[in-house]
Amino acid sequence: MRTRKLIAGNWKMNGGLIANVALLKAIHAGLHNPSCDIAVCVPSAFLAQCQTLLASSPIELGAQDLSQHEAGAYTGEISAQMLKEFGVRYVIVGHSERRQYHAESDASVASKVQRALANGITPIVCVGESLAERESGQTDEVVKRQLAAVIHLNGHCISEIVLAYEPIWAIGTGKTASPEQAQAVHAVLRGQLKAASDHAERVRILYGGSMNAANAATLLAQPDIDGGLIGGASLKPQDFLAIIDSAA
Ligand code: PGA
Q1: Distance 90 CA to ligand 1 centre (A)
Q2: Each residue's pLDDT tens digit, 191-224
Q3: N or C: which end of the chain has fewer CB within 10 A?
Q4: Please, what is the Cα angle at 197 between 193 and 200, to 5 degrees?
Q5: Which candidate in 95, 97, 104, 186 is catalytic?
Q6: pTM for the full predicted model
Q7: Which of 97, 104, 166, 186 is labelled catalytic?
Q8: In 3D, which of 128, 148, 153 has the Cα closest to residue 138?
């Protein structure tokens, strides 16, 4: 069974050496025995700094991407092994911004997931439809295709992932999927996971896309919403803390 919800911040390409200290300090100051798991997925340039800042903290360290290759001539890429050395516990894989701006395919996302799992890092696998896809009734088809590629390559290990449903039209736009819209897609994804693994019930399916202090509680109350992947609001300590409280 899913035990604790997961609230993961996705800092995207934000932060700085001074700002990171202030942000993590403010979050720590407001954390009181959190009853959910918490992570921050930081830019790779800050992994070393954040590893130090999060030592002996209940907040776990995450990265935002990794290479599908093990090592070698891949200029600019970061391997799972390297992430491991910095104590990375989670890595976002297949975020829509990577699929869109870096032409990541379903197949490369699946390989990255495999690479993360082989190195003991939990991938947070992102799926989600565009506005055009939603409006033409293709939502289920799109997210199922994206997840199917990951299941195909990873087989029964699929129960080791965290999945994140992030409708592209809701990311950074202030438009959130309604709790009912999100739950409907989460239920589809849950069904697909169950068909692939006997242990799928324990996979946490996060919602992401303009989750904030005001809407988190109702989203997190849905039966198949097991946490959140938080972009903008994770950079504001009070908002991030309020979302953590909503996950209690
Ligand atoms: P947002 O981003 O919360 O700013 O919409 C979520 C994400 O892209 O992971």
Answers
A1: 16
A2: 999 999 999 999 999 999 999 999 999 999 999 9
A3: N
A4: 55
A5: 95
A6: 0.97
A7: 166
A8: 128
